[in-house]
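Everyone, carefully examine this protein record:
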Amino acid sequence: MKVLMVLTSHDELGDTGKKTGFWAEEFAAPYYVLKDAGVDITLASPNGGQPPIDPKSTEDDAQTEATKRFNSDEELKEKLANTQRLENIDPSNYKGVFYPGGHGPLWDLAVNLESIALIEDFYTNMKPVALVCHAPAALANTRYHNEPLVRGKEVTGFANSEEDAMGLTDVVPFLIEDKMNQLGANYSKGEDWSSYVRVDGKLITGQNPASSEEAAKALLRFL
């Protein structure tokens, strides 16, 4: 059984001069949930090759059991260094898709035409689509039956209060919570930094890094 994981290729945190990318825990935790269940995982990104890892997600206070496992997993590091280009992905080969967050997706996956088409294809074909933290940004321009895909759907994603705590409210191109509300989604959130996942049909969204494992388990249940 094959699942696709889509990672950002964007590494600039606005015009701050700082780096961003994907959040290590949000990649590692879901990857191992799926891998340990026997799922065959393909990694892809807009540019292919090594996607940028948010440097903050590699600091000591951001480490979890999953990231520690990743840090010593040379096979996965090699696989990550060679992600496929999104334009070469055939969605019909996969049973579902998972999008890890980090701030990167706000800039590239939100507007990437291959990613948008991919999500719309999975959703139209009733395959589970899971996105965590900032990755729901990838839903910003997706459509279903000529209206926003998330309209009327129960969703979550990185909360305004969490972005404010990061000090990045004025740096990011848009706030996930605001965007979901603008698109007519039924956005809700749990406590800041605690696991909170919403499942609406085959659409799975997680609020923050702590939600990534639970979101992957929700995806696994559909598989």
Q: What stands out?
A: The chain has a mean pLDDT of 97. The helical segments are 24-35, 65-71, 74-80, 104-107, 113-124, 160-166, 176-182, 212-222. The radius of gyration is 16 Å.
